[in-house]
Structure formats: structure tokens, C-alpha cells
Amino acid sequence: LRKIATILGMVVVIYACQKDRSTFVDHEFKKQFQTPEMLYPFDNPQNNTSIKLGKYLFFNPAMSLDSSVSCASCHNPSLAFSDHIALSIGSKKQEGTSNAPTLGNIGFHPYFTRAGGVPSLEIQTLVPIQEENEFNHNLIDLEQRLKSDSFFVQAAREAYPNRPHYFAITASIAAFERTLISNQSKFDGFISGRNALSPSEVSGMRLFFSNKAKCASCHSGFNFTNYAFEANGATILRKDSGRYRLTKKTSDIGLFKVPTLRNIAVTGPFMHDGSYLSLYDVLRSYNQGGKHKSYQNSKSIQPLNLSNTELSNLEAFLNTLTDFNFLKNPNLKKP
Ligand code: HEC
Ligand code: HEC
Fold it and tell me: Averaged in consecutive runs of 10 residues, what is the pLDDT profile of the chain (335 residues)?
């Protein structure tokens, strides 16, 4: 009888494990993390020359009026194309108004900047070129300057024949940005069955996608964002009023595009103003239902009553989203 009980027990355990597994790594769950298809604009061919030219410009301080900063000064490849300070420093050592976001998987975003007012990557490049506290430059003078750079002139002719040089500047940078794909984290390895996660990471993953923590009601899908505009109550507004800046609707005060959580371990400090130094502090804010109640708008932001162990598990899960191949990829480093 004892033998039968043991066998029965084992069957129950195996069944439970399988059932458990199916909650997470069944086909439906996996499907949402498939890398989406990259859409290329018809007038911006993605080829070796356009990418090489874009990369050359991305790392080139000549882009800024005083030649002091490049795109990479604020979007550093080793930090998943973000930087490590709260507010980035631009031309003439001027401090910006918000924290530099990661550009990992930026080609998949439906609109750009944290307030979401820019429709394409090509057009987005104009923002840093013109911002006073970024390049403090303009496309006409920049084109003039780059006309004396023989590498630029030759590559621009080759990649964009019959197009003006200013077109080559914005188009090639966008082409390079579309190569910034991060999909090889430990989590991706788990999804495709290449590697396991530790028990603490698995518990954190469960919690993340559960109704208890509700993280995936905003940070969902391949890039861990639904690209919606939300206020998570983590910060008070100082220099940036979020989507309100564009719409002037009071209901948009403090709403920001839900950020990706891929490579989150290296993209701090966190939030639009870089006001959180550690991930654990971010998690504690969510656990309280937001630190600043008047700056949150969603039913998903509520006190979560998670224990310290649960918070550590969530943090362990978030750390599995780091893609070391992406951070170290020599093709994405300074040419
Ligand atoms: C001085 C620092 C700085 C420089 C230089 C800079 N950026 Fe940024 N970048 C930022 C900040 C800060 C933001 C967030 C602005 C916002 O959302 O309001 C940003 C946002 C972006 C975004 C939108 C990200 C998103 O999630 O929507 C893209 C794309 C981008 N930058 C690309 C570039 C490119 C390309 C260059 C060079 C041509 C560049 N940046 C130069 C600081 C910088
Ligand atoms: C209602 C939507 C929503 C929910 C639910 C939500 N978040 Fe967020 N999250 C956001 C928004 C919006 C931001 C950016 C806020 C800002 O920039 O000020 C953010 C920022 C973050 C950041 C910092 C990202 C960065 O690059 O600075 C982390 C980490 C994070 N969330 C993790 C979580 C976790 C873990 C949960 C679940 C406990 C969660 N979020 C639940 C909307 C949400």
C-alpha cells in the first residue's frame, strides 16, 4: 500500500509540475515574447552602407555644435544605449530635463520620446540635433559641416543616391538604430528552452505576470511595454510634465510612455527624472501603491502587500532581462 501511495504521490507531483509549467511556458505564453518583425520605411533602405554611415554619425561628436557630445554620450552601448546619470549632460555642459532612455529594441516602438509626440525614428533624430541642452545645432549647419567630411560624403552618396545630404543624416542614423535589437537575455533563453531560471527568478516571474503584482498590465509583450501612457505614482513632477506637454489636457499631466524593462539592470537611474537609484527602491514604491498618490492614474497601481522575499524575487526576475550579447556586441560599439 505504501508503494502505491508513493507512486500516487509522484504522479501528483509530476502532474503538478507540468500544470505549473504550462501556466508559464505554454505556447500562448511564449508567443508574446517572439521578436516582432521590423518594419522598414520604403524610402530608407536598410543595407550595410546606410547602417555603417548611421553608426559613424551616432558616435560622432561633430553632430553637436561645440563638438563635445555625440548620441553615444547619452546612449552608451555598454549601458544598453542609456547613460548612468539622472539627467544627461549635453552641449555646453547643459543639463537636460529628463533621463536618457535605453535604445534597445527602439525600432519596434510605435512612437518616440517619453511623451510620444514623434512618429518616426528618422524625425526623432531632429530632436537631439536641435535641443539646446543636447546638440544645440540645426540640420542646415550640420549638413554644411559634414560636407567637408570625405567619409560622410562618400557613404551618403552610396547609401542615398540622388538624395540631399541632410536626408542621409537622419535616415542613416535611423537605419543604425533599427539594428539595436536585444532578444538574447537569460529570460529569452528560458522561453526558448536553452537554459533554466533559478527558483527565485521563477517565483519573481510568476509574480510579475500575476494579478497580485499586475506588472504585466503595463509592462507586457516582447518589449515589456504596451507603449501606453501611464502615471505610476513613483515621482513628483519637476522639469517634465509628461504627455501634458503635447496635449495640454490636464488628464495627461504626468503620463509617460510605459518604458521597456529589457536590460533594466544596467539602465538606471530609473524613471523619467532618474530619481530612483536602485531597482529595489522602485519595487518598494510599487509595493506602497506609488509613493505620490496624486501622480498616479491607474487602477493597477495599488498597495501590493508583497513581502521582502517577494520583492527580492521580482528583482531577481528583472535581472534575467539583461542581454549580455547585446551589451558586448562589437558591431554596436564605437567604429
Ligand atoms: C544630451 C543627451 C542626449 C543626446 C546627446 C542624445 N539623446 Fe536621445 N534622448 C535623451 C533623452 C533625455 C531622451 C528622452 C527625451 C524625452 O523622452 O523627452 C532621449 C530620447 C531618445 C529617443 C526616444 C526614445 C524613446 O523611448 O522613445 C531616441 C530614439 C533617441 N533619443 C535617439 C538619439 C539619437 C539618434 C541621438 C543622436 C542624434 C541622441 N538620441 C542624442 C538624451 C540624449
Ligand atoms: C499602470 C501601468 C504600470 C504598472 C501596472 C507598472 N508599471 Fe512600471 N512603469 C510604468 C511607467 C509609466 C513607468 C515610467 C514612469 C516614469 O518614467 O516616470 C514605469 C517604470 C518602471 C520602471 C523603471 C524603468 C526605467 O527605465 O526607468 C521599472 C523597473 C518598473 N516600472 C517595473 C515595474 C514592476 C516590477 C511592476 C509591477 C510591480 C510595474 N512596473 C507596474 C507603468 C507601470
Answer: 57 45 72 96 95 98 97 98 95 93 98 97 98 97 98 98 97 98 98 96 97 97 98 87 92 94 98 96 95 80 96 98 98 94
Q: How far is the CA of 100 from the centre of ligand 1 (A)?
A: 6
How far is it, in rounded angstroms, from Cα 155 to Cα 49?
A: 6
Cβ 182 vs Cβ 323: under 8 Å: yes
**Rounded-to-integer distance, Cα 245 and Cα 73, Å:** 26
Residue 64 Cβ < 6 Å to ligand 2 = no
What is the pLDDT, as a whole number, of residue 199?
A: 97
For ligand 2, whether the C-beta of 243 sits within 6 Å is no
Q: Are 163 and 286 in contact (CB under 8 A)?
A: no
Taking alpha carbons only, the member of 184, 63, 225 closest to residue 134 is 63
Per-residue cell: 307: 513581502
Which residue in this structure is represented by grid cell 528618422?
A: 122
Give the pLDDT confidence score for residue 156 in this predicted structure.
98
The burial of 68, by beta-carbon neighbours within 10 Å (0-12 exposed, 13-18 middle, 19 or more buried), is given as middle
Contact 99, 273 (CB under 8 A): yes
pLDDT, position 12:
46
Ramachandran class of 254: left when φ > 0, alpha when ψ lies in -120 to 50, beta otherwise:
left
Q: Which of 66, 74, 105 to mutate to test the pocket of ligand 1 (most atoms within 8 A of CB)?
A: 74
Instruction: Kindly report the protein residue whose alpha carbon is nearest to atom 3 of ligand 1.
Output: 74
Name the residue type at position 205.
Answer: M
Grid-cell match 497601481, residue found = 301
**How many angstroms is it from 213 CA to the middle of ligand 2?**
12
Q: Is 261 in the pocket of ligand 2 (CB under 6 A)?
A: yes
Question: Which atom of ligand 1 approaches the CA of 57 most closely?
Answer: 38
Positive/negative CA dihedral, 211, 212, 216, 217: positive
pLDDT at 6: 57
The distance of Cα 325 from the centroid of its chain, to the nearest Å, equals 16
